[in-house]
Amino acid sequence: MRILVVGGGTGGTIVANNLARRLSAEIRSRRVRITMLSASDKHMYQPGLLYVAFGQMTPDQLYRDQASLLEGTIDFHVDPVEKFHLDQNKVVTKSGKVYEYDILVMATGSRIVPEQIPGLVEGAETFYTEATAVKLFKRLREIQEGTVAVVVGVPHKCPIAPVELIFGLHDYFKARGIRDKIKIKYHYPIGRIHTIKEVAIWAKPEFDRMGIEYETLFNVGEVDVENKVVRSEEGTETQYDLLIAIPPHRGMEVVEQNNLGEGGWIPTDRFKLTMNGHDNVFVLGDTTNLPVSKTGSAAHFQAEVVAENIASMIKIGTPVRDYDGKVYCFIETGHDSATYAMFNYQNPPDLKPPSKPMHWFKMSYNQMYWTSVRGLL
Amino acid sequence: MSDTKIVDARDTFCPGPLMELITHMKQSSVGDTLELLSTDEGSGADVPEWVNKVGHEILSNEKIDGVWHIKIRKAK
Ligand SMILES: Cc1cc2nc3c(=O)[nH]c(=O)nc-3n(C[C@H](O)[C@H](O)[C@H](O)COP(=O)(O)OP(=O)(O)OC[C@H]3O[C@@H](n4cnc5c(N)ncnc54)[C@H](O)[C@@H]3O)c2cc1C
Fold it and tell me: Which residues of chain B have a CB within 8 Å of the CB of A292?
């Protein structure tokens, strides 16, 4: 039985390690082989980018060697897949190698596409890559007064990031003693300040307390870089001195090029996590088309379900469990407090008041992540 | 005329039905028809509010067995 995991990020790493443990006997007796193909020899802890943007972490702290995170029995290659032949159960990589499989796991993540909005690349800062997070921090250090506008592209990974960014900006400028000289204006695509109703209800009085201005039903249409104006598709505009964007995302180009899913999002069964029409192809993490938050947390819970089901298919001939839509998101509410939102397909989150211990739990998780993807937590 | 594209946003708290619709609208072409399925009570009002503000067209909006079925045509 050949299991091929494509993608060595959060979801792919957890699924591969979990499988390697569950199937250790089968791997030893050579009845099962696990191969992972990825696009990088490094693994980035992406949530750390928000800390880099505020000068609280440096980029080198975000990386580990991917090979060091994997069980020794996993055959790992940095050789991105270029062609998927799902009808023939094989893929072709950049180096030209062909990998055949019995079970395929797709975990290729998502990518930012700021170029889809005119002027966004030139006019806006962001923090969704290492280079942009460092650049944003430099801009934040320079600014002395004026309007900082935050806009949000759709869809985007880490749906809590826009709100965390606002709390972070407020605390950062307060610490610099210039909060009274900076106007922070938040723009959000739908008719309330966060898509999760409970988060919106909780965050609104917090925004009012911090003096944050907000405009809802604002989908970024274009940025007029010369005049420093951002315009919405809904016909409104905001003048800014510093513009920060949560960029819009798509799935990976390779998914689109192989016609596996519109926008790079792979059509996935929301409970079984198999690709529609392909029972031997599992999909998890950002690359699914599911109406589930694109978060490491969702990728983690999905990876556990996928690994358990693949292992049980091999051992007893049937999957054993459905994914229930579980997501757990920390919400940093400034530089020294946090809360969290936990929900699934059926149950909305029940938000607790932010606390210092929750912030320290998140700070510990920033380290524990590496233990978590190894499957030891 | 192109087929109606179903956007199944039942039972989602995040990203939520309107965010799902906006995602699919961005991937569609002018003239396409999308049908949003939502179990969120607010969708019956939230979705038309955005669609009208941005200038797309609501073709129908009804609740059947607890599920909102909202048909939208991409107009621009
Ligand atoms: C600024 C920021 C803050 C965030 N904060 C949080 C947070 O607080 N909590 C949270 O839960 N999540 C957070 N996230 C989101 C989280 O990081 C992602 O949702 C998560 O990493 C998704 O996991 P994944 O396995 O789907 O994709 P990824 O982890 O992105 O991994 C994709 C993998 O696929 C590989 N790949 C790509 N193309 C190919 C190819 N053709 N062939 C083979 N391999 C390929 C890549 O090299 C990579 O290894 C944040 C993200 C950002 C950017």
Answer: 12, 14-15
A20 and A146 belong to one structural domain = no
Min Cα distance A347 → chain B (Å) is 8
The DSSP result for A333-355, as a single string, is: -SSS-EEEEEE-SS----PPPPB
- pLDDT tens track for A148-186: 999 999 999 999 999 999 999 999 999 999 999 999 999
Q: What is the pTM of this model?
A: 0.97
Sheet holding A33-38, edge to edge: A75-78, A33-38, A2-6, A103-106, A278-283, A274-275
Collect all residues of chain B within an 8 Å Cβ-Cβ radius of residue A341: 14
Task: CATH number of the domain at A82, please.
Answer: 3.50.50.60
Q: Which domain holds residue A53?
A: 2-109+252-327
Residue A249: strand, helix, or coil: strand
Q: Band of the pLDDT at A336, cuts 50, 70, 90? A: very high
CA of A180 to the centre of ligand 1 (A): 36
Span A6-60, pLDDT tens digits? 999 999 999 999 999 999 999 999 999 999 999 999 999 999 999 999 999 999 9
The per-residue pLDDT for range A348-371, each reduced to its tens digit, is 999 999 999 999 999 999 999 999
ipTM above threshold 0.90: yes
The pair phi, psi for residue A226, each rounded to 5°, is -60, -45
Report CB contact under 8 Å: B49, A217. Answer: yes
- Domains belonging to chain B, first-starting first, are 4-73 (3.30.110.40)
Is position B56 annotated as part of the catalytic site?
A: no
CB-CB under 8 Å, A262 with B27:
yes
Number of domains chain A contains? 2
Q: Which of B11, B13, B21 should we substitute to test contact with A (largest number of A Cβ atoms within 10 Å)?
A: B13
- Do residues A9 and A55 both lie within one domain? yes
